[in-house]
Specification:
8-stranded mixed β-sheet; 465 residues; 8 strands; 63% helix; Alpha-Beta Plaits; alpha+beta
């Protein structure tokens, strides 16, 4: 079994559990209504066996022991931070105890005292509840045994024991057969419904997987997994990288079909490395990629909550540090891997890259016309600046006659760099960055075409020249 199949099976189990938990919470709240009605319409047959039972003595205990706990159980399951499997086991345990407690309101005490026939009035409701629980929740197969065992142990076995101690063999056999049959059929119904839901979930996963190939993981999750917050407009600080292939037109003319094969593998490499380093490819223009870091995974803005400013500042610093590490690691890994890829695909020739990186405030939002086409895009000064720095890397390479892939870093993106050993600081006073005269200097990293490692000393000597 390959990793894709393992991941699919894991996600199917995760979906099945999450879906069962959601339906269990809903079922508990819905069943609170018939439990309340049962507290009213059960008084007639109870009075056949004990005329002294009052309406109030039957109503209020059932509301307090049945309806109210069911409402609280549904609320707890929705709000709890427990794992889904634990939630489901907690639900069936609490539900079984609620059934058990409700049965002790007149029904079981009367059966023990000699009115065993009362169990035959209550038994249809027990059968109905068991069928509804298994058909609605459809617990996954890996938890079905525990689910059934808890319900049988906490409610059905005590019920059969009460019937046995009533000393009415007809009632006992009737309750026993009804209990066994209802549990057996309920399990079969649960398995059938669960199998159908697994098939539906598998089809949904297949749709999501196909869509994610074109939409990317962020948008596909927002659509298929209900993470609509990913599509909300936000403003945050993030890193943006523009990276392009140098001399692609000339290389295409020289290599023809081999170039197209290399380009296909290069685009695949960019996607793989961006995913590995938590980046998001927001657009491609020709051979150029625009990739952001720390934007798509930006969490909820809590800055308006009083008293947590210092914690938010520390969390923001940690987030930007991670984003910086990811962004620079991505560029370095791409430079090295592209060198190996181009040598392999183009029979020893090295394809050079140029990249620019900037940091600043950006806006993530959905743009376009809903009737025609929508896209999740990131806009802001860093997007434009990274593009100009990428162009600036080409100017540097030509001006200094570098045979190297070149990264140019704006001053704003250097805050979280641990060291500058592999970078050269260059003044832009003589050759300013187009449209960004406020940038007075940049950091430059050059990866020599004949080496899989950066050569800062060699780059420094070339820059000095």
């Amino acid at each position: 079994m390959n990793s894709t199949e393992i991941d699919t099976n894991d996600r199917l189990r995760e979906y099945a559990l999450r879906d069962s938990v959601e339906r269990a919470a809903t079922l508990a709240q819905i069943l609170a209504i018939p439990f309340a009605l049962y507290s009213v319409n059960s008084i007639d047959f109870i009075r056949r066996f004990d005329s002294k039972v009052s309406f109030a003595s039957n109503l209020w205990p059932r509301l307090l022991a049945g309806s109210l706990p069911l409402l609280l159980l549904g609320w707890f399951v929705r709000r709890s931070t427990l794992g889904d499997r634990t939630k489901l086991l907690v639900w069936i345990t609490a539900f079984s105890l609620i059934l058990h407690a409700s049965a002790w309101i007149h029904i079981w005490p009367l059966a023990i005292s000699g009115a065993a026939t009362i169990l035959t009035y209550a038994q249809p409701a027990n059968v109905f509840v068991a069928a509804i629980v298994f058909a609605t929740i459809a617990p996954p197969r890996d938890i079905l045994f525990h689910f059934t065992l808890v319900l049988a142990g906490l409610f059905h076995l005590p019920l059969v024991w009460i019937a046995y101690t009533s000393h009415d063999s007809v009632v006992f056999m009737s309750v026993l057969s009804d209990t066994l049959c209802s549990l057996a059929y309920s399990v079969v119904i649960g398995l059938t419904v669960n199998r159908l839901r697994e098939r539906i979930a598998a089809l949904e996963l297949e749709k999501e997987r196909e869509a994610s190939r074109f939409l990317g993981p962020v948008i596909s999750k927002a659509i298929f997994q209900g993470e609509s917050s990913k599509l909300e407009s936000i403003r945050c600080v993030g890193f943006v990288i523009s990276i392009d292939i140098r001399d692609s037109t000339e290389l295409l003319q020289r290599h023809g079909e081999r170039w197209l094969g290399y380009r296909k593998e290069y685009f695949k490499l960019v996607c793989q490395l961006a995913a590995r380093h938590s980046g998001y490819i927001q657009k491609t223009v020709g051979d150029c990629h625009v990739i952001n870091f720390g934007v798509m995974d930006y969490g909820e803005d809590l800055s308006d909550l009083p008293g947590i400013e210092s914690e938010l500042e520390r969390a923001e610093e940690r987030r930007l540090q991670r984003s910086s590490d990811h962004a620079f690691a991505f560029v370095h890994d791409l430079f090295v891997a592209n060198h190996e890829l181009s040598v392999r695909e183009l029979h020893g020739e090295t394809v050079l890259l140029g990249a620019g990186i900037d940091k600043g405030w950006v806006e993530r939002s959905v743009q376009g016309d809903g009737a025609q086409n929508l896209e999740l895009d990131v806009n802001g000064n860093p997007v434009n600046c990274s593009s100009r720095l990428q162009e600036y890397s080409k100017e540097l390479r030509i001006r200094n006659n570098w045979l190297a892939s070149v990264l140019v870093v704006s001053p704003y993106a250097t805050d979280y760099l641990p060291h500058f050993d592999s970078f050269v600081r260059l003044s832009t006073s003589k050759h300013p960055v187009r449209n960004f005269p406020g940038i007075r200097w940049v950091l430059v990293h050059a990866l020599d075409a004949h080496s899989e490692r950066s050569e800062p000393d060699q780059a420094k000597s070339k820059c000095a020249a």
